[in-house]
Every structure is written in structure tokens, then in C-alpha cells.
């Protein structure tokens, strides 16, 4: 079966979506299917990789978003899709690429939309007062033009289910070999902190919807309470310079590492921190948080997001902003270290990529070539 996947907002330094696409594609290939990924780039290109063929089509760079590009030339994209002759189409952007579902229906190709973002949540943060009605309208059109909707958590599925759309829930996964407690690196820790310090980690894009200021505010509250904490920030984004200035003015011990391109360095970083912070309120899954758990590091997450579902008993969900996050961190630190690190790892082991790949392939009807996708075929 040839599964053609198409996504926007995939950049050289992008995080969770790029990771998910890579692991799913590699899983499709390993299962004997032909995976193709179509993404925007500076120029047209094609490259055979472990996740199958990656086709790049020219797409303009969006200003102020850290290098993200989008596929806007529908005619060119449609031509490429016809050339690729897919058996299934998997779409990973329900705003700018929703039209692909209509193309697939006209071509007689079953299509699946994967909801990697919360449209409801983004409009709640940045949209008009009528944002919920706007989200309902867009989600309704998405459901009508695709044979199936896949969400990674109950939280993500809720915005579809409230308008009567049935969805299939398939969690994402984590690389349990790369991200492991054994990656802990005392030498790395010594570069940031004194032996008595608590090392906090914010790992993620520094953009408004991720609420990175909550991590700085948590650090400030802990320091005021006498907790010798330091914060390590791994990630790039439009807020980085501003956050550095704010941390400097407040005299906060924050180490900004920028984007880390070496996955082994990321794995060591996640295993070395004492507590990770994932404060984004519109996360639909939270791969970075799951990678921290796999590394044996408990996580404090936003109670507004899907992450409480993912972290289970291996972390704490915080309401509000800085003081609430500081209290959640202290709750975690009150647990014996060996106990909290074991709980984190055990929770992550519930999410192997093999299970995610199997769930996505089942949604695609793998082994039943050309049978139309239907929401009653093992849905959520």
C-alpha cells in the first residue's frame, strides 16, 4: 500500500510533528508499505530516507514563525499527488491543507486527517470571541471532506466529538531506546548547577502558544521560597531574545541552549534534569514531555492541555501560572528520587512507537487494500 502523507509547518528545527512523521513513516516502511511524505521547502527535491520518500515542494516562509513554510500552490501539489498515485492519503494540517481531502475524494482515494493541533485551543488563545464557533465550522468541514479523523488523545478529540464527529484515537509514541534513564550525564549537570541545585528543564519551542514564561515564573517563585533551582531552556523561537532579557533583568539563573540538533545531546539533557516543565495549554499530546518521562524525569504540565492524560501518575498538572507550577515542582521533589524516576519511565513504556504505528496502519486499513476507510472500522 502506498501511503502519501502531506504536512505543513515542518521545518529543519521543528519538533514534535517532525518527530511523529519520521517514526510513523519508518514504521510504515518496516511493515512493508510504501510511505511518501510531501512537505514544503525552499526548492523542489526528493530524497529516499528511513521514513520512505520525502518530497519537498517550494513553499513560502511564514514571517515571524521561525522558518516554517507552507504549501500554498494547490495546482502543483495536486499534480504531485496525481503523479504519486497514492492508495491512501494522510493529511497533517486541517487549516491550509484541508482541501486535500476533497482532492482525494474526487480521485477515489481514502483520506485521513490527523489532528496534531488544537484549533479550538489556538483560537481560544489568539482568536476572536467567536473562536469556538469558528473552530466548530472548520472542524465540521474537515470531517465532511475526509473519510476519517485521527486524534492522539481524548482531549484532542473533544472538539470534534462535541459537534457529533466520530474520531479514532491513536496515541503517539516515544523512542524508548534513545530516551532512557541511563543517559543521565553528571558532567553535563555540573556545567549548569551546583551539587545542591535543582535542575529544571523547559524543552520546547519558544513561541507564545507554548507559554514559556510560565517556566521562568516557576523558577522565580521557587527561588523566592528558598529552593536553589536553575532552569535550562532547550529550544528556539520568536520569544527567545525577549525571554533572555527578562531573565537577565530578574537575575534568574537560566541557561538558554537554543535548538539542539544532536539527538543524543537531547537524550542526555532530558535524563539529567530533575524536573521537566511543559507549560503549553494547547498541547494535543506532548512528545517532549513523553521523552522526558522515558528518560526518567517527571514532568509538570498544564492542566488545560492533553498532557495530564499522557503523564498519568508520573507528574503533576498545574493550573494557573508561576506560583502554581512552583508548587507542583515542589510536590514532585518531595517524592524519593528513585521512586519518581521509576514512575516516569514506567509511564513512558506504555507508549512504544510500535503501538502507534500499528494503530495508524489499522486506521489506514492495512492488509485490506483499497477498502474504503470508515469511522466504524475500529474507531475510538
From TrEMBL:
Superkingdom to which the source organism belongs: Bacteria
Instruction: Answer yes or no on keyword Glycosyltransferase.
Output: yes
Tell me the Gene Ontology biological-process terms attached to this UniProt entry: carbohydrate derivative biosynthetic process
Q: What is this protein called?
A: GDP-mannose-dependent alpha-(1-6)-phosphatidylinositol dimannoside mannosyltransferase
The UniProt keywords, alphabetically, are:
Glycosyltransferase, Transferase
Q: Which organism is it from?
A: Paractinoplanes rishiriensis
Question: Pfam families from the xrefs?
Answer: Glyco_trans_4_4 (PF13579), Glycos_transf_1 (PF00534)
Enumerate the spans annotated as Glycosyltransferase subfamily 4-like N-terminal domain: 15-170
Entry's InterPro entries?
Glyco_trans_1, Glyco_trans_4-like_N, Glycosyltransferase_grp1
Q: Which residues form a coiled coil?
A: none
Q: Which residue intervals define the domain Glycosyl transferase family in the entry?
A: 194-343
Q: Name one GO molecular function term.
A: glycosyltransferase activity
Amino acid at each position: 500500500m502506498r501511503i502519501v502523507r502531506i504536512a505543513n509547518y515542518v521545518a529543519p528545527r521543528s519538533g514534535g510533528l517532525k518527530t511523529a512523521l519520521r517514526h510513523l513513516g519508518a514504521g510504515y516502511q518496516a511493515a512493508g508499505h510504501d510511505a511518501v511524505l510531501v512537505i514544503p521547502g525552499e526548492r523542489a527535491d526528493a530524497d529516499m530516507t528511513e521514513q520512505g520518500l520525502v518530497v519537498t515542494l517550494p513553499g513560502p516562509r511564514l514571517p515571524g514563525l521561525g522558518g516554517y513554510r507552507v504549501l500554498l500552490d494547490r495546482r502543483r501539489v495536486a499534480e504531485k499527488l496525481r503523479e504519486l498515485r497514492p492508495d491512501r492519503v494522510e493529511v497533517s494540517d486541517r487549516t491550509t491543507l484541508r482541501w486535500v481531502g476533497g482532492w482525494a475524494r474526487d480521485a477515489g482515494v481514502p483520506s485521513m486527517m490527523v489532528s496534531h493541533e488544537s484549533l479550538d485551543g489556538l483560537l481560544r488563545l489568539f482568536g476572536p470571541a467567536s473562536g469556538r464557533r469558528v473552530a466548530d465550522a472548520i472542524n465540521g468541514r474537515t470531517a465532511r471532506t475526509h473519510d476519517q479523523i485521527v486524534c492522539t488523545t481524548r482531549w484532542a478529540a473533544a472538539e470534534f466529538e462535541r459537534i457529533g464527529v466520530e474520531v479514532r484515537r491513536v496515541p503517539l509514541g516515544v523512542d524508548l531506546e534513545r530516551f532512557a534513564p541511563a543517559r543521565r550525564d553528571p558532567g553535563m549537570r555540573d556545567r549548569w548547577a551546583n551539587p545542591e541545585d535543582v535542575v529544571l528543564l523547559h524543552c520546547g519551542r519558544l513561541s507564545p502558544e507554548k507559554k514559556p514564561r510560565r517556566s521562568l515564573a516557576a523558577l522565580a517563585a521557587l527561588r523566592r521560597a528558598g529552593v536553589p533551582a536553575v532552569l535550562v531552556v532547550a529550544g528556539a523561537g520568536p520569544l527567545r531574545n525577549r525571554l533572555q532579557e527578562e531573565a537577565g533583568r530578574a537575575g534568574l539563573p537560566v541557561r538558554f541552549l537554543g535548538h539542539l540538533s544532536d539527538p543524543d545531546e537531547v537524550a542526555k539533557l532530558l535524563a539529567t534534569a530533575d524536573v521537566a516543565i511543559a507549560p503549553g495549554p494547547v498541547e494535543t499530546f506532548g512528545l517532549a514531555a513523553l521523552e522526558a518521562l522515558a528518560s526518567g524525569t517527571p514532568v509538570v504540565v498544564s492542566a488545560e492541555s492533553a498532557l495530564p492524560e499522557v503523564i498519568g501518575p508520573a507528574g503533576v498538572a498545574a493550573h494557573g501560572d508561576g506560583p502554581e507550577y512552583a508548587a507542583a515542582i515542589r510536590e514532585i521533589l518531595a517524592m524519593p528520587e528513585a521512586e519518581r524516576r521509576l514512575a516516569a519511565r514506567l509511564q513512558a513504556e506504555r507508549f512504544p512507537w510500535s503501538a502507534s504505528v500499528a494503530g495508524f496502519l489499522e486506521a489506514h486499513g492495512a492488509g485490506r487494500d483499497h477498502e474504503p476507510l470508515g469511522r466504524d472500522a475500529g474507531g475510538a
